[in-house]
Each structure stands twice: as C-alpha cells, then as structure tokens.
Amino acid sequence: MATTLVSSAGGMLAMLNESHLSLKLHALSNLNNLVDSFWPEISTSVPLIESLYEDEEFDQHQRQLAALLVSKVFYYLGELNDSLSYALGAGPLFDVSEDSDYVHTLLAKAIDEYASLKSKAAESSDDSIKVDPRLEAIVERLLDKCIVDGKYQQAMGTAIECRRLDKLEEAITKSDNVQGTLSYCIHVSHSFVSLREYRQEVLRLLVKVFQKLPSPDYLSICQCLMFLDVPEGVASILEKLLRSENKDDSLLAFQIAFDLVENEHQAFLLNVRDRLALPKSQPSESVEPKPSDADSTQNAGVNGADDVPMVDGESASAVSVPEDPSEKLYAERLSKIKGILSGETSIQLTLQFLYSHNKSDLLILKTIKQSVEMRNSVCHSATIYANAIMHAGTTVDTFLRENLDWLSRATNWAKFSATAGLGVIHRGHLQQGRSLMAPYLPQGGTGGGGSPYSEGGALYALGLIHANHGEGIKQFLRDSLRSTTVEVIQHGACLGLGLASLGTADEDIYEEIKNVLYTDSAVAGEAAGISMGLLMVGTGSDKANEMLTYAHETQHEKIIRGLALGIALTVYGREEEADTLIEQMTRDQDPILRYGGMYALALAYSGTANNKAIRQLLHFAVSDVSDDVRRTAVLALGFVLYSDPEQTPRIVSLLSESYNPHVRYGAALAGALIAMAMVMVQISEASDSRVGTFRRQLEKIILDKHEDTMSKMGAILASGILDAGGRNVTIRLLSKTKHDKITAVVGLAVFSQFWYWYPLIYFISLAFSPTALIGLNYDLKSPKFEFLSHAKPSLFEYPKPTTVPTTTSTVKLPTAVLSTSAKAKARASKKAEEQKASAEVASGPDSTSASSAGKGKSSSEKDGEAMQVDSPAEKKSEPEPSFEILTNPARVVPAQEKFVKFLQDSRYVPVKLAPSGFVLLKDLRPTEPEVLAITDTPASTTSTTAGGSGAGLQSSSSAMAVDEEPQPPQPFEYTS
Amino acid sequence: MDTKLTEVSQLLDRFKAAFLRNDFDSSSNLLSQLKVLLTGFRSLPPLFADTPNAVQELTIARDIYEHAVVLSVKIEDQDAFERDFFQLKPYYTDARNRLPQSPQEYPILGLNLLRLLVQNRIAEFHTELELLSSTALENPCIKHAVELEQSFMEGAYNRVLSARQTVPHETYVYFMDLLAKTIRDEIAGCSEKAYDYLSINDAKQMLLFSKDQELLEYISEEHPEWEIKNGSVFFQKAKESAPCKEIPSLQLINQTLSYARELERIV
Asked: Could you tell me which residue ranges the 26S proteasome regulatory subunit RPN2 C-terminal domain spans (chain A) (predicted)?
C-alpha cells in the first residue's frame, strides 16, 4: 500500500531527527510500515535508529519499535544474526503469528539458534551456556501458538528439537488425537533424534504420557519400553492384560509379545519372560528374586539343556496344581505368552508357513548344477550355497537328497559349508534340529570316522538353526567345543555357539571361546573372534578392549580380522557410546583393525543416518591408504543409511565413479549382481520387467562357459538370494515398528565378510524375514480367514516356475519360458470361458485364486472353493481382476502391504491393523466352530532317523511316501 | 472543519504572527507543537488516508512545513532546513495530484539547490535537478541556482559573487553569503596547487578579501599550515604530499602468471 503512495522514506527519516519524542515515534511507526519497500533508504540511517533503541529516555514501546525496525532492515540486508538479536530486543512487538517472510525466516533462525544452544548445553552439561531468556520467550511463544492453533505435529517437532520436553508433553496431551500424535512422536523420535540418550529421554516421557491415558495403547508403550530396556515395565503390563477378565486383553498381550519378538532382542525378551509372575498357586516360586541378565539366561540355558522345546515343558510344570479358576486361566495364558516371548511360537509358525508355501524352483538349481563344471569347486560350493539360501527355513532339502553323488564331491571346507547349509534350510526347526543334524555331529569324542569338516559344519548348522533362540542347544555346543581340539570343529562350534547365544553376553561361554582364541590357531581363532562379537552384540562391554589387545598380539591376519569384526559387533547400536572405541580402531596402524573400525561405525550407527558417522565414513572412503578399508567404509555407509534408502544412492553415487576399483566395489556391494538380487527379491515380473531381464542375465552368465569364475559364483549366489526361502522371505533390517532388527543387521554385516571366508555366506539367512500375514486366534492357531489385496494378482504373484523341455539343451531355457507363457495367454484370450478356466487351472500359478499353492495340502480344498467362487465372476468382465482374496496365512510382499485390506463383515477382526507379520484376530462369533487353515508341521517323524543308520534312512523314505513330509537327507559319505 | 483542524489553523496563525514579528524563539516553539499535531492527521504522507478534510489538511500541513523551511533559513540552521525540507518534499512530489501547486514550491526547491551547492554536495544537486520538470527549470528561482552551479564549475567565481545582487528571493541571501565562503575555499585549494607562494596583496585579491586583516584571520582559521613570511604566503607544505606511488608492475606480472599456471594445473 505504501509503495504506491510515497516515493521515498526520506521524509520520515528526516522526522527521526526531530527533537520531539512523539515525532520520532510517529516516524518510527511509519517507517516500520514502509520498511518492506524502502529498506535500502532506511539502511543508511540504521545507526540513528540503533541509537534510538539504546536511548534510555525513550519508553519501552518506542525502543522496541526501533529494534523491530532495525531488525527488519538487517533481515533485508541478509544479516540474520544481527536481525535476530534486534528482533529479540523488540520483545512482544515481534509477532510470531505474522505471516511474512521476515517472521518465518527469523523464527526458523531463532529455533535453530535455540536448539543448538540447548543441545550444546545438554552435551557439555555445564551451566556456562546461558540461553537468552528473550530467545526462550520467542520459542515458547511459537510453541504455544502452534498448540493453540492445533498444529501439534509442528509443535512436537520443534519441542523435540529444542529439547523442551515440557512443551512436548503439553502438545501431546492437548492434542485432539492423542494416540495419533503419540505414534507420530515415536516415529519422529526414531527418525530424527540422532542422540541416543536424548531419544531415551523422549521415549521415557512418551511412556509417562501413555500411561496417563484412559485407554493406553499398550502396543506402543511396550515398544518404547523395549527401546528403553525396561523389562519390568513390559512384564507388568503383560501381566495386567493376562489377568484381565476380557479375552480381548489377552489377545492384545499376545500381539504385544509377537511384536516384541519381531525385534529380535533376545536378552530383553528372556528378561521379560522371567519377570512374568507365576500363578498364585505356587507362592514359593512367584517371589523368586529377579535375576540379572546373565543369570536369567544361564537359568534358561540349564532348563532347556535337553532338546525338547523347553518353554512348554517349563510352564507345564509350573501350572501343575491350579485351584482357582481365574488362576487357571492366567496360568494357561501365561504358558502361551511365554511360548511367544521365547520365540518358539513365531518360529514354529514361520516354519509352517515357509514349508507349506514353499515355491522354490528346483529346475533353476538343476540348470545351475548341470551348467557348472564338475571340477570347479568354487561354482560347486556356490551352488550349494544357493540351494541353502533358496530353501532357507523351508526344511525342504529335496535337492540335496536327489543329488547325493554330486554333493559328495564337496571336500574339506566345501564339505563344511555343505553340512552347514542344512542348518540354513532347517532354520528355526528348533525341536528336531539336533536330531536332524545328528548323523553329522561329532560322536562323543570316539571319532566315529566322521570328517572333522562335516562335524564342524554340523555344529555351525546347529547354530544357524537356533540363531538367536539357542537356550536349548547352547549346552551341547559348549560340550562339543570343550571336547575337541580339532580346529575345524572348534571353528564350527564357535560360530554355532555365537549364533545360538547371540547377544546374551554369557560370561561362561565367553571364557570358553576365549580359551579357543588363545590357542592362536588361525582357523579357530577367526571364528572365535566373530563368535565373541556375536555373543556380546550390542552390549558395548569392555570385553572389546580385551579383544583389541589380543588383536595386536596375534600374528594371524585371520584372527585379527575375526576379532576386528567381533569388536565391531559389540558396539552394535551404541551410537555415541562407541565413539572412543571407534576412534581407537580407526587410528590403528593395522589396516585390518581400521577395517574393523569401519564396521564398528556401521553397526554402532546402523540405520540412524547420523551425520557425524556419515562424514567419518566418507572421509575414510576417500583418504585411507588401504583399499580394504576404503571399500568397507563405503559398504558401511549402506548400513548407516539403510533406514533412509532414498538418500543412499545420492551419497554413494559420487563414490561409484571413483577411479579406485575397491571403492566402486563397495559402492555396488559385492558386485552389482548380488546387490541387484537383494533389491529384486520378491518383486514379480509383472510389477517390474527388469526382474525378468535380470533373471535371464544371471542365467546367461551361469551357462556361459567363458564367463569368469568369480562372476559365475556371484550369479549363482544371486539367483539363490533372488528366490530365497522358497520365495517367501525378504531381507529386512527394520521391524515394522522401525526398530532395528538386531539379528538381521548382524547377519548382513557378517555376510558381507564372505569375501574372505565363504561359509559366512550363510549369515544372510539371519536377515531373512518371512513376508507373510499370519492371523492367529486365541489358541495361537491360524483360523480360516480371508482378506483383500487391492491390487492386480499378477503384480505380486510368485514368479512362474521355469519349464524345461527335458530333451532340448538348457541354453534355450529363457526363450522357452517366454513362448509357452505367451502362448498360454494368447490361447486363453481366444477360447471360450470354460476352456479359459481350465487353462488357468492347468497353468498353476496363473490362477487368480489365493496364492497358497496347495500341493495336496489340507488347504487345497479351500483354494479350490475360492477359485470356483472367484473365477466365473472375474472372467466375464476383464482378464485380470483388480483385487484378490487372500487366505490366512498368506504371502504378502512388502510392496503389497499397502494394498491389504481387511474385510468388513469378516468373522475375525484383527487386534492391530497390521498388513503383515503376526496378527492376533478377535473372534466375533466365538460360538461357531472354527476352521483352521494349516495344521501340518514339517518333520514330525524324524526321531527315528536320529541314529543316522541305514534303518533310519529307510524309515524316512517310507514316511515320505505317506505324508510328503520332508526328511533329513540320507547320511551321505564323502568321497574325499 | 473539525476541531483538530481548527486548532491547527489557529496555532498556525499564531505561528505566522510570531514569524512576522521575527520572534524566532516562540515561532520555533509553536512550530514544534504544530508538527506534533500534524502526526494526528492520517491524510498526510506517508499514509495519505482519504479523510473528508484531506485537502485542507494537506494544504495546511504543506503551509506549515514551507514556513518551517523558511524559518530554518532565518535562524540559519542548515540541519533544520534539511530536515524540514525532506518532510516537505512528499507534499510536492507525492501529493502533486491531490493539491493545487503551492506558490512557494519553486523558491523552496531553488533554495534547496542552493543549499546543496553551498555544502558542495554537487552529486545530490544534480540528482535533484534531474527530478525537476522542464517547466520548473524555466522558473527564475531554479534557473538562478542552475546558473550559479555552472559558473561555479567553470571557475567563474566573480560571476557567482555578483549573482548575490540578483537573488530572486530575500531568503536566498543567507545561502549566497555562505556560498562566498565555499568559493573562497575552492580558490584557496586551487592556489595551493598552482603557486608556491603569493604576496599578501595578491593573495588578498585572489581570495576576495578587502583587508589584510581578514586574510590573516582566514589563514589562521582555515589553513594554519600556510606560512607567512617576507610579505608573502607560502603554500609549500601542502606540496609535500607524497608523490604518486610507483605501480609494482613486475611483481604483479609475476603473480598473474603464477595464477595462470596454477589454474592450468587445477583444470
């Protein structure tokens, strides 16, 4: 407005020189309006206005007005610091609600300033840093205004950044949707609060607020408590829910337990489990003193020393004589929840799911097997690895059993990995794990002729089977470790023990492994180093220094490398607490220790996207003298950034153009092939055509006789990863609640070592998590339950199995696949309706019905029904429906999660609206009989084969004929 | 007419009376009151609110500031002149479409030009000149200032001094006197450069003094560094100003070349 009327602010500036006060005031207030257009003119008079601001004779209002004016001029001049300090002088005249660039800019500046002051004050923890009270007042005014205006998220974000927990609490409690804001706040604190201590403070506050609510969201509380490592809190909540009369509450408790299990924090879970009070009928045990971490795991280890699922046994004994009906109910629920917390239930259900939904394509393996040269041991073992990864957790070892002759070509370490591969395949098969491996295990010191390689491999396999849930097997592994002096067996036992007691920080085990380390044998020492790290994962204990000292003493590079990785593992997730150790390692003379330092950085800051860590890593990536260290630094960037996948390519892209091949290697993570496979896992061809090309490219490399061995190996591994776990798993480093999955991260970190030691490839199986939605009822069984996936079925269906015409040469394979499927489609579109339907049925996975395959399983009938219901309606209008009905339990790939919807009028209602994972279902019609979906569990008759004799072999094959249960492979003889 | 306007106009009448009496103290006093009262009118610059009495208010305000300018000349206060003139200026420039032209406009603009000339602010003088319309330039008041400036620049100082006799307005006399002083400073500056020394008589004539006494006073006041001996004024001290520094060409060339070399290496 002023711009059109006046051509100059000179008049007003002249008026400032008048002697009369009211004239100055008049001039000031007019200039304040004119400043937006005439700041260049006014800027020459700034000293004059400043002197007005400092003039004591002026009254408060006028001085503030002068300050505001100066502040605006400085703002236009780009002097934000001066501008802010004068704006502070303007006091209440600086209107935070004004909608102008000036105010927005200065507010941002003020908040930045305030936040940096506050965090500096918090970090140095002395009171010397005084925050300007006026600055504080402005920020508070802003926060209050946000709260009043209903911009709670903004207020919360600012409050968190400024470390004003009081305001944060106010914002949350005053918001209209407390639950929503709380979950937003949890999300924010995980993704943006990079300081671990402060994040804990925030979470503690959140828990406090949560608990004040009339209907607390126990799911979120427990997640927070887990992060804070307060097992008592979780235990008391769970107990309260379990004791409730309402059945829904116990469902909720089960759901909480499943969610906690998903985060794979073994030590914490055990703690919670041990703190749950026993039923009152046994008062003597309910008052047992709360054991410390090490004790509790020790107890568990003793209890579960035998090979039966010890939790069931334990609780069964605890629930012996319930008198009171409510106590009885509680005891029953308690036994269930203990089962869940120990991980038994979820592992068992996962196993069932992976087994029944296994869609891995044996033909691919066959093709690979035929194409690799017999004498090329690298490719040979790569194929074995690929097989293990492909069938991870499915218990399907058909391929191995069908190819015993071929398998027996494996010698020495290849034999070790072949045996260990069984562990991957049977991953999570806790009950029968040991009996499955029995034929290969060391036979009580008598040296029953078994090769040390297969014995060591078997111990490693046991570790893989029991990874992170190893109470049952620990004792056995320890005994084996103690009773052997063969370094290969020690190697296997160390790895196995480390896996089984992941993160439990068990002192006794640690000592035993240390003894192995001190024998200074390269092979055993390397495994011992890694194993110590696994044992101490995330504890940040001072054992790391012990390990570091030994790493300096020993001569063996392998041991140093193992120890370096082990040290890195101990600081997992400790963030700042690990800084001293990292500093120590990264400054070391020895490149291998610096290399370990990179891993330490990667693990300590994994998934935090912490700027400091990134900066350090980038620095090492370009400046270290050792190529290994540089490569690892780039690789470590991936770990630090994994929660922020969009950012990673941007940071890494420059490095990928580096002239140094090692850096490029790191940027691509083990060569483009494997990395591509990790990206492409479980993306169907329909949703991304690149997958098809990629598969064909892999095939070409494998089949091409002239291709380099290394790239062949990469391609074989990649095709294994691509179809991992019977095409039902994916690599997932974050749980659904955005917690890091400790096992997965650790697994991947150790996996990335495979360059130096191939058997470590199997660690990738730790990073696999099933992509499934498994609905469970009160009895923890999966009832028949349908839900909707609101997307074209072809987008997420399993890749079509390769169909090989047996007579033709395998080289023509890719084209053959294409033509048949294309023809099938063409045919289908031409023919009449019925024919179409039949074609559908014939082509198997083309079928539009539920994704469960139903190979003669109990679910096949239901599938058939579903198909009959669905297909006629769909055929009429369009060739492909825009949705599909999935039946519990179903494969739900990550990209599909956003399409999953629960049906309105369904009998079951989920307790938590989660699109994947374990979901507890509330039964709305409890009187009706329930139909259960899957009841079959793999390998129920294996006990007979435990002897590993010829009789066992026969009985297993006969059992196979009866119920198609997978059996352990026949004990084969190595012809080395 | 509303009460405020009446009050202002009554006060203005009292001010004018005092002004005519040459009672500068009371007129300054009244003027200050008037200015404060004016801040109450929203129709004045920079707001230009469309109040019903806008025209009267603007007119009266302009009148007040015109008088203020003239008053400042009379009390020989250049700062006050500048201050009041700048406050008056929006009434001439921005309020041109709202008010009939003031008869005092050109004399006051001319006065301002003269002031700039006196203060030797030639750049601002020309800026002001550029803002004037061609009709304004025809006005004798403006023309007078323009001619003065031209003579001043040419060095025709005698013409400048003789112009004092032909002032278009009695208020100009004050500035013309000041201008004589400015001119004398200019001449003194030139003489310093042009001569090593001058006899007292020549210097007196050159600096347009009538008596030796005046010359000596001027020298002791403005140029104490000048020496007077043997009936002459010596300027040599001023001549001792440092000779033009030699340009370190060789060094510069070397530097530039090395920059170029390094640049080549970087690229």
From this structure: 771-932
β-strand A786-789 against A729-731: which pairing, if any?
unpaired
Range scoring the smallest mean pLDDT among A170-179, A587-596, A788-797: A788-797
Would you give the DSSP letter of residue B101?
P
pLDDT at residue A659 in the model: 53
Crossing angle of the two packed helices B54-74 and B172-194, in degrees rounded to 10: 50
Whole-angstrom distance, CA of residue B81 vs CA of residue A470: 95
* Cα B151–chain centre separation: 16
Cβ atoms within 10 Å of A661's Cβ, excluding its own: 10
Task: Give the DSSP letter string of A863-880.
Answer: HHHHHHHHHHHHHHH-SS
- Across the interface, of A5, A14, A17, the residue whose CB is closest to B46 is A5
Which tokens is A353 given? 């799911």
> CB–CB of A178/A128 below 8 Å?
no
Tell me how far apart the alpha carbons of residues A401 and A411 are, in angstroms, rounded to a whole number.
Answer: 17
- Torsion over CA: A355, A361, A364, A370 (sign): positive
The larger pLDDT score, comparing residue B152 to residue A314, is at B152
- Cβ pairs bridging A and B (under 8 Å): 56
Do A516 and A490 form a contact (C-beta atoms < 8 A)? yes
Angle between helices A507-518 and A543-553 (to 10 degrees): 0
With residue B78 as reference, give the H or E element that holds it.
helix B78-93
Q: Do residues B53 and B2 make contact, with C-beta atoms less than 8 angstroms apart?
A: yes
At residue A660, the 3 state secondary structure works out as: coil
Higher-pLDDT residue of A360 and B220 is B220
Tokens 């097992």, residue located: A231
Instruction: Find tokens 């490399």 and name the residue.
Output: A701
| Structural contact between residues A750 and A760, judged by C-beta atoms closer than 8 angstroms | yes
What are the residues whose beta carbons fall under 8 Å from the beta carbon of A193, sequence distance 6 or more? A160, A199, A202
Per-residue confidence band for A169, with pLDDT thresholds at 50, 70 and 90: confident
pLDDT over threshold 50, residue A276: yes
Helix (H, G, I), strand (E, B) or coil at A237: helix
Show which residues on chain B lie within 8 Å of chain A, measured between beta carbons: 32, 35-36, 39, 45-48, 79, 82-90, 93-94
CB contacts, 8 Å: B79 with chain A = 17
Here the contacts of A522-525 (C-beta below 8 Å, separation 24 or greater) are A522/A556, A522/A558, A522/A559, A523/A487, A523/A488, A523/A490, A523/A491, A523/A558, A524/A487, A524/A490, A524/A491, A524/A494, A525/A554, A525/A556, A525/A558, A525/A559, A525/A562, A525/A563
Closest chain A residue to B86 measured between Cα atoms?
Answer: A11
Residue bearing tokens 């009448």? B13
| d(C-alpha B251, C-alpha A888), whole Å | 86
Distances (CA, A) of A580 to A124, A505, A635: 17, 21, 21
Going from the C-alpha of B40 to that of each of A13, B31, B43, B68, the distances in angstroms are 18, 15, 9, 18
Q: Is A643 exposed, middle or buried (0-12, 13-18, 19+ CB in 10 A)?
A: middle
Whether the CA torsion A620, A567, A607, A730 is positive or negative: it is positive
Q: Is the pLDDT of residue A749 over 80?
A: no
When mean pLDDT is compared over A5-19, A124-138, A165-179, B13-27, the highest value belongs to B13-27
Distance from CA of A55 to the nearest CA of B (A): 20
Task: Give pLDDT, residue A405.
Answer: 77
- Closest by Cβ to A14, choosing from B39, B46, B82: B82
Strand-strand pairing, A772-776 and B197-199: unpaired
The C-alpha atoms of residue A324 and residue A590 are separated, in whole angstroms, by 66
